[in-house]
Write a structure and sequence with these properties.
CATH topology of the largest domain: Aspartate Aminotransferase, domain 2
Structural class: alpha/beta
Strand content: 5-15%
Helix content: 40-55%
Number of strands: 12
Radius of gyration: 21 Å
CATH class of the largest domain: Alpha Beta
Number of domains: 2
Bound molecules: pyridoxal-5'-phosphate
Order of helices and strands: HHEHHEHEHEHEHEEEHHHEHEEEH
CATH superfamily of the largest domain: Type I PLP-dependent aspartate aminotransferase-like (Major domain)
Number of helices: 13
């Protein structure tokens, strides 16, 4: 019996499926094997220099050393609103429709606390970013998982959500471009989702961390582009993937003012905002980052175009990513997500992510992140060919 038993809330967390894999990774490394880590969803390239330079200047300003306001500097919220207008044609009032976040994960994790009561349900994509489900649990809610299947282009079948869950549901979480499946949603789907949310009086919480990591020039859209979407939608945006800024911890939420204010209520009570120097650097990124992001997209597209034909030549049938830096791959016959990852790790020294770590419907897939140079991706393909499966 532990002297300090963890709360039931923490004890109820889903098991950390990657623990066993982490242990095996250590083992393989201890054997002296060279490891190619294609597991982590973290850009390998540094933040563009002009953003780092702005950060240096901002760090010298004494006013930036004091507590920031939780909602973000007016000039940061202005920059986010202007960026949304330019990128999506969506008009936002920086006064009450934008709030700064300490990375979008922070906003997503806090959002259910503002709108979910114990006993409420939340509609959560499966496979999906684990935070939607865990934040729901922390708020005392119950997740109703929506399977994302290849035959449906990884879009949820909203009409098949059980009516019992639907009658208790408060929030519909969506995430396109999607981690881990790399799918994007089209206008038709967003229209359907919005009409569905209207019919069942749901909040739509859309995680748009990957809208700028797209391929072949096809730009993903914001659900706020739809007329009337601002009545019930909030979007969580992030600078992490767009500008290689994962370590900086900055993002923002935009949309319906009541939803933004509700999230703000949680935030005023648990955090004190984003370091103002980082907000200054983020303004620089939003205002002058397009060229840098072009380069980032090009890098991932080149890597994708090495990996995909290579995987197909090995007899695999990966999903062709429309966006994100992930490749979602059905495992070969005779394997599970876990056993295929283990095979690639222990035999070939390649780290991938088992699809079941993102939810039950992720079983039968692995995820590869395009966060290593082309040379390493080629090397991984050669090793896969050598060890076979
Ligand atoms: C990376 C990621 C985020 C963003 O994380 P930050 O907290 O902004 O760094 C959000 N959602 C998904 C699905 C992600 O993969």
């Amino acid at each position: 019996m532990s002297r300090f038993p963890l709360s039931r809330r923490i004890q109820a967390l889903p098991p950390y499926l990657f623990a066993e894999l982490d242990r095996k990774k250590q083992e393989v490394r201890a054997r002296g094997m060279d490891i190619i880590d294609l597991g982590v969803g973290d850009p390998d390239r540094p933040t563009p220099k002009f953003i780092v330079d702005r950060m240096k200047r901002e760090a010298m300003v004494p006013a930036n050393h004091q507590y920031p306001s939780y909602e973000g500097l007016p000039r940061f919220r202005d920059a986010a609103a202007r960026w949304y207008k330019e990128r999506f044609g969506v008009s936002l009032d920086p006064g009450n429709e934008v709030v700064a976040l300490i990375g979008s994960k922070e906003g997503i994790a806090h959002f259910p606390l503002a709108f979910v009561n114990p006993g409420d349900a939340v509609l959560v994509p499966d496979p999906g970013y684990p935070v939607y489900h865990i934040a729901t649990m922390f708020a005392g809610g119950t997740s109703c998982f929506m399977p994302l299947l290849r035959e449906n282009r990884f879009l949820p079948e909203l009409d098949r959500i059980p009516s019992r869950a639907l009658s208790k549901a408060k929030i519909l979480f969506l995430n396109y471009p999607n981690n881990p499946t790399s799918a994007i949603a089209d206008r038709k789907f967003y229209r359907k989702a919005l009409a569905f949310a209207e019919a069942h009086d749901l909040i739509v919480a859309h995680d748009v961390a990957y809208t700028e990591i797209y391929f072949d020039g096809v730009k993903p859209m914001s659900i706020l582009e739809l007329p009337g979407a601002k009545k019930r939608c909030i979007e969580f945006h992030s600078l992490s993937k767009t500008y290689n800024m994962t370590g900086w911890r900055i993002g923002f939420a935009v949309g319906n003012p009541e939803l933004v204010a509700g999230l703000g209520k949680v935030k005023t009570n648990v955090d004190s905002g984003v370091f103002q120097a980082i907000q200054g650097a983020a303004i620089e990124a939003l205002e002058r980052g397009e060229e840098a992001t072009d380069g980032i997209r090009k890098t991932y597209q080149e890597r994708r175009d090495v990996l995909l034909p290579g995987l197909r030549a090995l007899g695999l049938s990966p999903v062709t990513p429309a966006a994100t830096f992930y490749v979602w791959i059905p495992v070969p016959k005779g394997y599970t997500s876990g056993s295929f990852c283990e095979h690639l790790l222990t035999k070939a020294g390649i780290v991938t992510t088992p699809g079941n770590g993102f939810g039950r419907s992720g079983e039968g897939y692995i995820r590869i992140a395009l966060t290593k140079e082309k040379g390493r991706i080629r090397e991984a393909l050669e090793r896969m060919k050598k060890v076979g499966f």
